[in-house]
Write a structure and sequence with these properties.
mainly alpha; 10 helices; 185 residues; single chain; Tetracycline Repressor, domain 2
Length: 185
């Protein structure tokens, strides 16, 4: 007979809940704001429940980054699939995704950026993803002009993240970067 007061186990859902809470914490406070206890409290589980899925904070943060990079990769792929111009397709997708409106302080993108910036041991994961994507799109996105646009996009989200109020010209900057990513006639 099944106990009606006992919760059914759903390890996949609990693991995802933990990752969602880590992303939220990292977006708000960077990885220094992440503790197993804070994650457990936010997720409504015990510290032991977190340790059941992730042996330590380092493994937890690495799993969060893998999740975020995988999500970013899916979004970039979707943008590329809908792009009818080959030249600069990765750069346009990169700009579109990284300068999206959900880039706020508590966003998944913010969590990724804060983690990579504040802990160099994790920046290698980001660099590896970017290098692989640039190799994949070497024929369409190797120009120095496109590299400058990607750097400008990185600078735009970084500055936007530092300022207390959203800038009124942020969307215009994004639009201009995308326009400049098309081949010159």
């Amino acid at each position: 007979m099944e106990n009606p007061y006992q919760r059914k186990k759903n390890p996949t859902r609990v693991r995802q809940l933990i990752l969602d809470k880590v992303i939220q914490l990292a977006g708000q406070q960077g990885i220094q704001g992440i503790s197993i206890q804070s994650v457990a409290s936010m997720a409504g589980i015990t510290k032991g429940g977190v340790f059941h899925h992730f042996a330590n904070k380092q493994i937890l943060v690495k799993a969060m980054l893998e999740e975020l990079i995988h999500h970013l990769d899916r979004e970039v792929n979707a943008k590329i699939e809908n792009d009818t111009v080959a030249y600069g397709c990765f750069t346009r997708a990169y700009i579109e995704v990284t300068l999206s409106p959900n880039i706020g302080a508590n966003s998944a993108w913010s969590a990724l950026c804060m983690t990579v910036i504040t802990d160099k041991s994790f920046s290698e994961m980001w660099n590896q993803w970017l290098e692989e994507r640039l190799k994949q799109h070497a024929t369409t996105d190797q120009s120095i002009d496109l590299k400058i646009l990607r750097y400008a996009a990185d600078g735009a989200w970084f500055i936007e993240g530092l300022l207390p109020e959203p800038q009124h010209d942020y969307a215009l900057i994004k639009q201009e970067l995308i326009l400049r990513s098309y081949p010159k006639s």
